[in-house]
Design goal:
Strand order of the largest sheet: 8-1-9-10
Cofactor: [4Fe-4S] cluster
CATH class: Alpha Beta
Pfam families: CofH_C (PF19288), Radical_SAM (PF04055)
Number of domains: 1
Keywords: 4Fe-4S, Iron, Iron-sulfur, Metal-binding, S-adenosyl-L-methionine
Structural class: alpha/beta
GO molecular function: 4 iron, 4 sulfur cluster binding; 7,8-didemethyl-8-hydroxy-5-deazariboflavin synthase activity; metal ion binding; transferase activity, transferring alkyl or aryl (other than methyl) groups
Bound molecules: S-adenosylmethionine, ligand LW54GNZ2, tyrosine, iron/sulfur cluster
Mean pLDDT: 95
Order of helices and strands: HHHEEHEHHEHHEHHEHEHHHEHEEH
Shape: globular
Protein name: 7,8-didemethyl-8-hydroxy-5-deazariboflavin synthase subunit CofH
Length: 460
Amino acid sequence: MERLPTNVPRGRFEFAHRPETDQSFENALAKARAGDRLTVDDGIELLTTGTAFDGIDPRRKEQVLEAADQRRAEVVGEAVTFVANLNNNVTTACNTGCLFCNFKDPAGGFESDQVPDGGVAHTDRGFTKTPADSRRIVRDAVRRGIYEVTSVSGLHPALALDADHREALAAQGGPNYKPASMYATDPGTYVEQLAAMAVDGVHLHSMTPEEAAHARRGTEKSYEQVYRRLKRAGLDSVPGTAAEILVDEVRDVICPQKIDTGEWVAAMEAAASVGLDMTATIMYGHVENEAHRVQHLDVVRDLQDRTGAITEFVPLSFVHHDTPLVEKGMVSTGATQAEDELLMAVSRLYLDNVENLQSSWVKFGDELGLKLLSCGANDFMGTILSEEITKRAGGEFGEFRSVAEYVEMITAVGRVPAERSTDYRQRRVVDPDEGPFGPTLGPFADGTPLVDRSAALADD
Ligand SMILES: C[S@@+](CC[C@H](N)C(=O)[O-])C[C@H]1O[C@@H](n2cnc3c(N)ncnc32)[C@H](O)[C@@H]1O
Ligand SMILES: Nc1c(NC[C@H](O)[C@H](O)[C@H](O)CO)[nH]c(=O)[nH]c1=O
Ligand SMILES: N[C@@H](Cc1ccc(O)cc1)C(=O)O
Ligand code: SF4
């Protein structure tokens, strides 16, 4: 039987870590089926369907997917959850230069001398919102019934933890700092933005490890001090993005100016130590190989063993179309479907201490997103209402799914739709015979259906 292709022919990049093991696929599959804790070598054998040959064996792939689906059913049952949420990203200004990212705009384009009076930024596809802008956008969405607002942004040079941090950066001239007075729009401080978004009891999900590093730059503050201050300002949980691939030889290629693996882990541990829940992610399907992917899972599993704070794992398949990695000719595609399916399945089997696995329709689309619910996933992401990160990398699956669409799609694949809270501690099963369908868990939610106002939101 012909083997299916993988996206990056092994060996194209000279990495020290390579998908070679002393384990056999059969042994690894037997351990997975028995519910044994897998080793990195086991994971590599499952993810490659056997390292003895290049490409993916379709029959073995189905065996791995079936094992993952069985494990999902045992761990979390038949419900497929979704959250009523909003993405409110504050700014696209960022000079960190991650090669997989097209969300960012050079911060210089936002400086006052670059922006016509009252006009939009020099890079007119980007944006910076004031705290007042954020508050207005979030308040509107809360009144429409959302439960959570997620906010992840570029590392704007004027952004600082709080007023004291701003003063310290101004006094020492940096690092990566320019005063807000140089920009057409002042983003405020992280504390001001969080306080502005923490309206009416909405759940505030923000401040990735990379943003926390930005919020302590040039100081001796610990990550604990930063996250404790952010929690006081209204932060409820932390997105475990900026993870990308938690193996430094890969980070050195795709995001050399970003925090390293150790810093990411330290920030996440700190967030957990001050009582914040978090998600964890992997952004895969670019230059890395299967050994890197499983080593990444091992870092996440170990973090969860030590903190228990990770509420879900979120595979982010690299959206490659409009990114520097493609422009530089380093890659030409993202992950193949077979790789997406196996990554989800091996995540389920390897992360034996993380209960929830998310399939994102904005990255995979509805059809593959639903298929991945039979490969180990049990969550189908959220309504989000607005989305720039994927869209600006060339993603074309939209910015919104209504509760009615969730109920229709989930029941169509024979699963049980359930609205959830960010921390999964609240789950409300939705009866598909009891329309109309709207969110009910948010502070102002009364079951009124959400409508697609992404155009209106984009005008904000
Ligand atoms: C855009 S950043 C914004 C927050 C912050 N600047 C950071 O890097 O954590 C958030 C995450 O989006 C994901 N992302 C960015 N570009 C992507 C792409 N082209 N495909 C898939 N995920 C992407 C990355 O995992 C990244 O950590
Ligand atoms: N996977 C993606 C997400 N996931 C995060 C969820 O939207 C939600 O914030 C989290 O599950 C906590 O409840 N968000 C995106 O905007 N895009 C994705 O691809
Ligand atoms: N920021 C990520 C999505 C994400 C958001 C919050 C999370 O907790 C996890 C993932 C992206 O757009 O790709
Ligand atoms: S991934 Fe985050 S830090 Fe990296 S360039 Fe994009 S916005 Fe900036």
